[in-house]
Amino acid sequence: MTEGWYGGPPDKRGRPARPHGGSQQWLFAALPAFPLALLVARLWYASRQDTQTLLLLVQHVSALGLLTAVLLTTLWVLPAFVLVARALGTLYRVSTGRSSWLSLAADRVPDWVVVLSVLTGLASWQLRFLPTLAMLSLAVLGLTVHDRAPGRRDLAVLLTLVLPAVVAAGLYLWLAPAIGQAFAAGDTVTAVLLTLPPGLSVLLTGPIPARAAAVLTSALAVSLLVVAPLFSAAVVVQAPILPLVGMEVSRESEDAEIAGKVLLGYVITADDRFSTFLDRDGTVRFIPNGVVLSQFLCPDLGQIPHSRVALHRWYVEHSVLAWFAPDPLEKPSDPRCPGRPAGYGRDRPRPAGG
């Protein structure tokens, strides 16, 4: 009796038997709760583990803003998860001739989801990750050919050897200026991300020894299941929950700790008497509106690119969407954003060491 597509014998009507998924229902039921857990973790991180501050943030912070941070993270994490899972599952089957939980999970990913994941990654991933995207896409394509058309040697040679070699050569020609800049600047991470994946793509499109496949695919799959949620949470908990605002306080303020200073943080809420302000260190302050001289937006220093490597004015930390989007308005940053009042340096001396 032959095995069905999902590894079990066909049923009485000749259709392949699907695996028993009752034990997996809890996983699908828990998936919608993951974004909610990330939102709560972000507020808990911003409140510095203080319950009252957490409740204050839950009451006033927009859930849509937090959900946007989760969706932006998912937008580039999900394609990697889909492509790696599909590649590992197919690699196990074509290498061992058997099915496992990983190959069964890969079978549940439709081809159109794989194509959509590639297009999403192409638009949302940074330039330095696009060679990795090409490597994963070629690996999925080559392994799928070995899996579904094992007798088509001509097709296998074309899509698993010729195509990866041509794509690798094209990528190296296109990325050559950026690779040279990365090595010259000592940017090792960027140099490796731009140089290594195109060459590896030629080696990842076919089967490997069965024993190595069983160990490698299981280890990588478990690592992905553990690291992906943790990495997503680490990115989300550092995402901004509110616009970064500077608030200049008058010297007439009754609070000597903030009198005559510039506070940097987030305005949680404001009414006709007080502004509820969250410092960047997690301190909540209720500041009377009468002592607030001005408020102004400040840039998020965490969004400043760390690498200056570029390709045709396209920085390696920018995505295709950022490359085609209009350039940001050229406007100087407010000099008070470092925390210095407007009159600093003119009407009073600098402090020692400043």
UniProtKB/TrEMBL annotation:
Nucleus listed as a keyword: no
Membrane spanning stretches: 26-45, 66-92, 112-143, 155-176, 182-205, 212-237
Segments of this protein annotated with the region Disordered: 1-20, 328-354
UniProtKB keywords: Membrane, Transmembrane, Transmembrane helix
Organism encoding this protein: Planomonospora corallina
Protein name: Uncharacterized protein
Biased composition (Basic and acidic residues): 345-354
